[in-house]
Input
Amino acid sequence: MAQDMTLLWGSGSPPCWRVMIALEEKKLQGYNSRLLSFDKMEHKSQQVLDINPRGQVPSFKHGDIIVNESYAACFYLESRFKSQGAKLIPDGPEEQALMYQRMFEGLSLYDKLGAVIFYDYYVPEGERLESALKRNKETLVTELKLWEGYLEKLGSGSYLAGKAFTMTDVVVFPTVATAFRFGLSAERYPKLGAYHALMKERPSIKASWPPHWLENPKGQDTLKDI
Amino acid sequence: MAKDMTLLWGSGSPPCWRVMIALEEKGLQGYNSKQLSFEKGEHKGKDVLAINPRGQLPAFKHGNVTLNESYGACIYLEEQFKGQGNKLKPENQAEVALMYQRMFEEQSLFYDRFVPEAERHDSAKQRFTGQLKDEIKIWEGYMQATGPYLAGKNFSLADVIVFPVIAFLFRFGLNEEHFPKLAAYHNTVKDRPSVKNTWPSNWKDTPGMDALKNL
Output
């Protein structure tokens, strides 16, 4: 099973991390894992293009099946391996709906985070504006406060969509971890801080923690003042 | 069932349209349908905020369940009403994988660009236009490789999610001659009852735009 799977990934990429967490949670360790370097532009190399013509990671193959979109891969793995490993999609309508709601809101969080921490990557030099970056930071703060509120409402020790770990955590935790890597203050965002601390200890997350974060424990401080 | 459901929506919004198609496909006509006007700012009104604090449409309620993300609502409806209406998730694993892949690739196609006037750059507009053209070509390629639906032989969640965006592209003047496979897909799905019944009402009476005709 896992031996028929191949994942091409880059360290610190939240989409890649999502798939790795899902593979761990579904007890699919033993897949062919290929770490590529963004700096060396390996994500545009032939081995990636053979699986993903878009030249993006994650690129994921299972036998002849290819699923390169991280959410899609997570859904596929849960669908295909429903009966093994952790149950990532709850059955009850209310729990399920909240899980889907937060999963897709997670995309909003990811976009808004990227708009700040990767501003210079996304926006060519001639188009960069202080006013735009400032607005992006304000938008991110509003979004983070929403998530603080969600966690507050669920109570301490909870996961993002309720009392149990679900696919929401698989797909959104990497975004939260990235925010803290870039200096988000756990004092200003205590609920997210507590969630981060809780999740860091989970086996699937420890097993897939970005290698270069282990090598350089100190991240950046882009977000320390927001 | 449907009577316990409420959908607040705006005309011509692909995310709203997706949920409406899904409701029709699952035989859930009869839901409380409330059309709101974006132009009048009704999406920021109290009745939306009561369901969706983000002040966005679609806003969907089913009893105690609230789902304001269109993908979430569509997947939820298929999961919870698996046994009724049309099956939107294929049996075959390879088709399921392709369905998920296309559903989430759609994110590259639907550009949501709200940039304040003072920050608009010609270079940005050119770059986005170029990216859009490249992206549409990718989808034309997909329709050359498979069909008649996005994940293969069967209409699925991938079509529920992506078709509204394709319809938008043609509404904005995408040239059928430049993209014949997408045009054929558009013409096939246009006639599906769930799509006909939910076609944006203002599109029926007014001509489209031609912003994309040169793409």
